[in-house]
Amino acid sequence: MKMSIRRFTQFLAVALTTSVTLYATDLSKAYDMPDATKILKQDKLAKPTKFKMPKSCNLDDLEAIARGKYIFHNLNGKKAKAKPPKGLVKFITKNGKKKPKQFGNCVACHNIEGAKGAGNIGPDLTNYKKLFIDTKARDAKFVYQKIADARIDNPKTHMTINLTTKLFNKSEICDLTAYVISDKSKKK
Description:
The chain is 36% helix and 4% strand. By secondary structure, it is mainly alpha-helical. It has a domain at 53-181: Cytochrome c-like domain (Cytochrome Bc1 Complex, Chain D, domain 2). It has a two-stranded antiparallel sheet. Helix 3 packs across helix 6 and helix 5 packs across helix 6. The longest helix has 20 residues, at 5-24.
């Protein structure tokens, strides 16, 4: 079936008019549009927070180092392979429901001794004690702050904001600090 040029032009004009009409139509009534301002306020991070390392942090405690290692290398209790060290649990009860405990999974971004599948987005933490603590280039307070809220000295960091958002508590930040600055060359 052949179409004349005039007929084709009429067809094209109708198609374009219909397209423009549909494009200009307000479709906001066709689907639910929630007020995003509440969602954005809920998701907004608190301002960067400066933290002081608690005096109760025992950075030489072998149990604290073991907990820090466990947190560093695991994402959550459901997938954690080993039994958690004393003081940690794989599951927590929240609102009457048992949920996997969220751990750090720091190894997704950082390399460190014994890491499997380590990432390279964050700094390599291998030999941290020898390179930074022993040389006094950085101290445990620096590490504690970095883990708690790294935005203090790097507003554009991609590091998770752990203490400000309450992803971790002060004790867990102490455990992670103890692990990062520990001498991992010795068998524990």
